[in-house]
Amino acid sequence: MQQEVDASRIPELTQVIEQILAEARRAGASQCEADASLQRGLTATVRLGEVDTIEYQRDRGLGLTVYFGKRKGSASTGDLSSEAVRATVEKACAIARYTAEDECSGLADPEDLAREVPDLDLYHRWDLEADQAVELARRCEAAGMAVDGRLTNSEGATVGNQRGVRVYGNSHGFLAGFASSSHSISCVLLASDGEDMQRDFWYSSARDPQDLEEAGAIGRRAGENAIARLGARRLATQRAPVMFIPEMARSLFRSYIGAIRGGSQYRKTTFLLDSAGQRVFPAFVQIEERPHIPKALASSPFDGEGVATRDRKLVIDGVAQGYVLDSYSARKLGLRTTGNADGVHNLFVRTSAAAPTRAELLRTMGSGLLVTELMGQGVNPVTGDYSRGASGFWVENGELAYPVHEITIAGNLRDMFQSIVALGADVDGRGALHTGSVLIGDLTIAGE
Hints:
The protein is globular, with a radius of gyration of 24 Å. The chain folds into 2 domains: 7-228, PmbA/TldD superfamily (PmbA/TldD fold), CATH 3.30.2290; 238-446, no CATH class. Strands 3-2-1-4-5-6 form a 6-stranded antiparallel beta sheet. The chain has a 5-stranded mixed beta barrel with strand order 7-12-13-14-17. Strands 10-9-8-11-16 form a 5-stranded mixed beta sheet, with helices on one face. Helix content is 23%, strand content 37%. The chain contains 9 helices and 17 strands.
């Protein structure tokens, strides 16, 4: 019987890390760090009631970075044997000897490393066999297809069950690890009425399978979403208020995080260069990072360099409080790491004003565009120019009037951030970034 991938594997990975760090020091590395992981998963997809795919995943990985003074070399392997460890050390050291010196390279400073590793309840096993996953996916899809006779096709319902364990250590004496899990159910359905065909989906994801939405409810929501899009029209080119539902609003704030990342700042490839201390959003916008929420999908006790994660306010009253930094970018900017070597951990976008419901936001907008889907990658991170394909609903007198498609919305992110009218109370918590709907006062809508 194969051993489960959970916290019981931490001692095994710890031994691997201790061995590879010791080998690197014997090879002459002045500093070194290593990361070892095990992952296991099952994914089952059903399409039109029949099994489409069943995938089993078993991965292991070991990465090493060594420093010879200010010269850096990295190597990785999927083999955790002693022989592979020694070969990985040799390769990393050989690379380091031929790289150029970089005064900002090196491990995170010892005083920034996590001294305590809190248990954030990130691992929840789901004893799900392949036949059970298939039946769950069938139930999800069938519930969706039963919503309306115009649901004529499916891209499938998928059930995913992932778990893993990771240990990180470095030559400053840091060595710690934790287990985590991630489970999901999703469904994508197609509706047709004559020659009109529309597609939509719904999903649920959680650390704990008990926190997932019921499979039938996910399928029904996917079916309802697809039916609602039938009869979509194009719009005339115009300027109008635009409201993004939470799932789409996330991308606006991801662009903000990308603009304040240390790499973008020191390379000067961002439209928000040197923005710390500047008002970027209206005064009611607050953005906070909270890495230690139990069970949350982006929680982590330490980042990819072993740096302690901690609660942090990124935006207060619309004013940017700083940047998102790892140790290298922090040194390039003459600053200190913010514990974000592997990204942000549970970002919350909130309003200091009373948060309106989605219906209240629509009434505030009056007439305009409600965006429920975005397409393309038309965001220039250097200039902030924004142009993306979109679909959704035209709103009249605060009510959904009819679905729309084949349009483009355009503006500039700096102006868009400043033009946010309100943030909604309809927060979507599925993911690393939590936000409600976002109403923007005025954007160009390109159509007919």
